[in-house]
Amino acid sequence: MIAAKDNTLKRQDAGPQAVVSARGIKVHFGAVKALDGADLTVLAGECIGLVGHNGAGKSTIVNVINGGLSPHEGSVTYEGDDSVHGINAARAHGIRCVFQELSLAPNLTVVENMRVVHRGLAGWNWRRQAAAIVRAKLDEIFAGHRIDVMRTVGELSIAERQMVEIAITFCAVGETPKLVILDEPTSSLDAGLAAQLMAYVRSFVQAGGAVMLISHILGEILSTASRILVMKDGRVVADRIAQDFTVHSLVLAMGSVVKEQDRSRRGGEGAASSPLLALPARGGRGLGFNARKGEVIGLAGLAGHGQTDMLLDLHRSLSHNWLPGRQGNIAFVAGDRSLNGTFPLWSILKNLSIASLSDFSRLSVVDRGREDRLGADWKGRIEIRTPTMANGILSLSGGNQQKVLFARALATTAPIVLMDDPMRGVDIGTKQEVYRILSDEASSSRTFIWYSTEMDEIRLCDRAYVFRDGAIVAELVGEDITEENVLAASFAGEGA
Ligand SMILES: Nc1ncnc2c1ncn2[C@@H]1O[C@H](COP(=O)(O)OP(=O)(O)OP(=O)(O)O)[C@@H](O)[C@H]1O
User: Fold this and answer.
1) First CA to last CA across the chain, in angstroms?
2) Which residues form the ABC transporter domain (predicted)?
3) Which residues does a 6 A CB cutoff place in the pocket of ligand 1?
């Protein structure tokens, strides 16, 4: 910690080079200390990696730097100037932010969203200008993307929305961005898109820009950041050059215990048992799908190639719409938590228990004691960080909200659980616990169908189906589930 302080002081001496410097920042929300004296400085030409457990205070410090939140104590200095405050000051000093919960207007086109962010776009042909600028930036960052910038944002997949928001943020219209803060920028991107973004970040930094990269995917932090800051309970507890860290030491600094991932696979109730569910080849193309009792099945391939549609088809085919109260055979963890996962006006407990109410109700009367016990049980099991489960769901950090959605599905007695990239923004310590729960539940005959954009998660599955252009193009089993095989199937025939 002493070393961390020394580093910070040296950088402050560098004065004008600091794009932003935050000192002794304290922010509380009621009894919760979100920031408890956090210090952070970002210099031009460096990529800072910011890591920490869910609820450590990363998004809150971003909001302070971005000028959207006034700290209760402490000061923020932009390019050595401590006399200015707020969003306009931050923007004038070139601070830009891509938020964890994407913030584009869904009813506007990509081009119209450009106009909302870049007020410098004006004049009779602003649409043409905006289209050219954002298209060029998308081409530069995500070469080969297929995004039509004239489309309404609400029609885009979550991965495409993330790409658009990133591209819009990096665009220079009049003023050039000096510090771009990326809060979980790859949470919905597959490995290929994430690698494209990381390559762009490196080139942006080499050209003198600064980036603050927040991610729970520690590999991308280690390979991209020049300096890494670790946050814990509202403070920066380590601040060192990236080469001084390994995944192991980062996890330790975050306060989690590194556990070996159990990669042994159970393989369901044996290849010989009859499928629990099956679907024919999608649109008459590619392979059909089946799942057996107790299997963990991965849906792999490039993001947005039909995996979510498949989960929705499975849900439709297994739900009884004509008997809305009786859908106990299937649970679903939604991928886009703010769009169709959380009930924003409800408490954390209600968000968790909603899918299990029928299990502890008699004659339509809910047993509140059992509901409270359910909440307390899951709060402890996956460390939902809150003083009380009676607080509103939006009082939780993004990763903690995601844990509640996961617990909602797992708490049911549904034998089949569908999961649409369910670990978005969940910290590494909790992920390991969740993998263990999944493995135990599958051993007691529950079936999981799991779309994931992370290869490390697909590798944990018993079988994986690789998707391409809406169809299943390959089925991989056990040890054949490798990144190489998934990529080969994802691109097979391309360019032929
Ligand atoms: N609007 C709010 N009301 C009440 N508490 C809040 C609010 N916003 C954040 N908090 C609390 O502040 C703490 C820090 O949250 P923050 O979102 O900064 O964490 P984080 O490190 O970004 O987590 P994650 O990795 O899950 O995104 C958490 O305990 C969170 O519950």
Assistant:
1) 56
2) 20-258, 258-494
3) 29, 32, 34, 52, 54-60, 100, 385, 395-400, 425, 427
